[in-house]
């Protein structure tokens, strides 16, 4: 075993030392790529941490950029409304169609309204809203700020003694935080109504009865924490998209890269945050 | 040229900047007096635009000193730097107008934040500035709806909105036809006479530089090759300068 380890170390060392044309050199190159990748990974987190700190410092300092905040709330909230509503409605219909058969098989068909409403308000509505908004808004912010960066508009703003972290990043972040819970409410409502519609088409039931059955056991803890957790999704979308946009390099190709990475990273972090937040909610709002 | 920090709007000493192994500026010295226009000539990629970005604090130098009205800016924090930036206007190479705002809003942008004016006064001042560059008829247009020359005019109006004592021009005539380029050059001269601003114009437009500059420096490989009047430049025996002027002609 010792001999094996020793040989491995010698081979790895030789791989580092050898030129890139030999197979050992290729191993060395591969290790270097891995090492650089790990360094870039930690560098990204370091830079992102500094960016978050800077945005947090300027977000609530005077002068407030109220006009830009309202413009962003409109761009992020109002203009994402149809998408959030449609995503919520589709989720409601799918939940109704999928669960009806299963519940009928177990003789629990009467629980269908409850299953639809619980699923929507506790998990499906917030997560679906977070993901569709991260796609639309993340791409929009990443592309807009990326284009501003490569055309020197962000430099021009800084040269005008205006902090772009305040005017561009903080306003977008706050707008995302404020709008996500509201969009989630819309998605939940549309999902419930469309879930009822799908249900009533299969077996007629009044909306009032559907809601009475579905919400009979719903408490404050079932509804408010999952809805408010989407504010964290908004924080993630706002910060990551602005960060990726404002560090764009390399012309229009760079803008494309920033846009893609803004969406991918926002979605990824939303999914990871959801795991933590669900655990947090279960502990503090059992 | 006086070197007293209290009277010299802009003074640079031993300024050095590298990107990796590439040395872009190699310890250059220059100063600009009140009401003077200094043209910085040189080939593309010789660090002319980097020089301007260093002067306004958009990039940090590796070594050297930059004094604006006697204040060393290389060690200032963001807040202090922003106070200095209010006294410096910057016209970017592609004008860098905010494309989500109209022409009028672009010029209002610095005024709303720093001029301490009422909204009505801001609007009036922005319109005056746009009229002074011949853009009073395009207030509601978006930057994408106007030509490159018009964008430069709006950029110029925005750069001088806070009545800066120093204005930095990055390739003000680049990408423009000769007539529009000459008009921009004339505007720079008029502004200098009217407001007595100290200006640095980075360009490789030799004819333009001759038209609007009082002094010229020629940059090559991060060093100043020649500094003086345009006549001094024309009399230079330096191979690079001779070739540069010959090719420009």
Structural class of chain A: mainly alpha
Structural class of chain B: alpha/beta
End-to-end Cα distance of chain B: 30 Å
Helix content of chain A: over 70%
Radius of gyration of chain A: 25 Å
Outline type of chain B? globular
Can you walk through the features of this model?
The complex is a heterodimer of chains A (286) and B (249). Chain A is an all-alpha fold. Chain A has one domain (49-284). Helices cover 85% and strands 0% of the residues of chain A. Chain A contains eleven helices and no strands. Chain A has helices at residues 2-17, 23-59, 66-76, 81-105, 112-150, 153-159, 164-202, 207-214, 220-228, 230-246, 251-284. The termini of chain A are far apart. In chain A, 40% of the residues are buried. The longest helix of chain B is centred in the C-terminal third of the chain and has 18 residues, at 178-195. Chain B has nine helices and ten strands. By secondary structure, chain B is of the alpha/beta class. Chain B has a domain at 99-162. In chain B, a hairpin with a 2-residue loop joins strand 9 (215-220) and strand 10 (223-228). The model of chain B is unreliable at 1-5 (pLDDT under 50). In chain B, 38% of the residues lie in helices and 24% in strands. Chain B has helices spanning 48-55, 78-85, 103-114, 119-132, 148-159, 178-195, 206-212, 230-235, 239-248, and strands at residues 10-19, 22-32, 37-42, 63-68, 71-72, 88-91, 166-170, 198-202, 215-220, 223-228. In chain B, helix 3 crosses helix 4, helix 4 (119-132) crosses helix 5 and helix 6 runs parallel beside helix 7. Chain B has a six-stranded mixed sheet, sandwiched between helices. Chain B starts with 9 loop residues before the first strand and ends with a helix. The interface between A and B is medium-sized, with 16 and 23 residues.
């Amino acid at each position: 075993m010792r001999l094996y380890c020793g040989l491995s170390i010698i081979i790895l060392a030789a791989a580092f030392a050898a030129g890139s044309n030999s197979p050992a050199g290729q191993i060395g190159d591969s290790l270097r790529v891995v090492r650089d990748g790990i360094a870039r990974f930690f560098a990204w987190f370091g830079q992102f941490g500094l960016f978050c700190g800077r945005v947090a410092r300027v977000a609530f300092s005077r002068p407030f950029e109220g006009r830009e905040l309202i413009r962003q709330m409109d761009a992020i909230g109002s203009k994402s409304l149809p998408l959030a509503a449609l995503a919520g409605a589709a989720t409601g219909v799918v939940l109704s169609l999928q669960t009806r058969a299963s519940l009928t098989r177990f003789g629990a068909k009467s629980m269908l309204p409850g299953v639809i409403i619980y699923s929507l308000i506790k998990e499906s509505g917030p997560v679906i809203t977070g993901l569709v908004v991260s796609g639309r808004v993340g791409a929009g912010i990443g592309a807009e700020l990326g284009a501003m960066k490569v055309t020197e508009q962000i430099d021009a703003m800084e040269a005008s003694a205006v902090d772009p972290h305040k005017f561009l990043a903080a306003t977008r972040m706050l707008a995302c935080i404020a709008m996500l819970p509201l969009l989630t409410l819309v998605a939940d409502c549309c999902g419930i109504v469309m879930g009822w519609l799908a249900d009533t088409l299969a077996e007629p039931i009044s909306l009032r009865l559907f809601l009475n059955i579905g919400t009979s056991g719903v408490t404050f803890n079932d509804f408010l924490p999952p809805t408010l957790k989407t504010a964290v999704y908004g924080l993630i979308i706002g910060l990551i998209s602005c960060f990726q946009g404002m560090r764009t390099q390399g012309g229009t190709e760079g803008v494309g890269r920033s846009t893609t990475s803004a969406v991918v990273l926002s979605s990824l972090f939303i999914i990871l945050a959801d795991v933590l937040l669900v655990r947090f909610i279960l502990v503090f709002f059992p | 040229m006086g070197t007293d920090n209290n009277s010299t709007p802009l003074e640079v000493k031993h300024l050095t900047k590298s990107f990796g192994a590439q040395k872009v500026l190699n310890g250059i010295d220059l100063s600009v007096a009140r009401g003077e226009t200094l043209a910085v000539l040189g080939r593309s990629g010789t660090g002319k635009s980097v020089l301007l970005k260093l002067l306004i604090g958009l990039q940090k130098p590796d070594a050297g000193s930059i004094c604006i009205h006697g204040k060393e800016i290389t060690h200032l924090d963001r807040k202090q730097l922003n106070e200095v930036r209010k006294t410096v206007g910057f016209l970017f190479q592609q004008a860098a107008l905010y494309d989500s705002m109209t022409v009028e809003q672009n010029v209002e942008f610095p005024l709303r934040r720093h001029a301490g004016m009422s909204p009505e006064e801001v609007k009036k001042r922005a319109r005056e500035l746009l009229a002074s560059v011949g853009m009073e008829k395009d207030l509601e247009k978006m930057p994408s709806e106007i030509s490159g020359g018009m964008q430069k005019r709006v950029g110029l109006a925005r750069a001088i909105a806070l009545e800066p004592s120093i204005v930095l021009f990055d390739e003000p005539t680049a990408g423009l036809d000769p007539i529009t380029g000459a008009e921009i050059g004339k505007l720079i001269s008029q502004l200098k006479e009217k407001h007595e601003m100290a200006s640095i114009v980075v360009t490789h437009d030799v004819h333009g530089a001759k038209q609007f500059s009082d002094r010229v420096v020629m940059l090559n490989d991060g060093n100043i090759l020649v500094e003086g009047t345009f006549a001094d430049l024309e009399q230079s025996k330096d191979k690079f300068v001779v070739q540069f002027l010959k090719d420009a002609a």
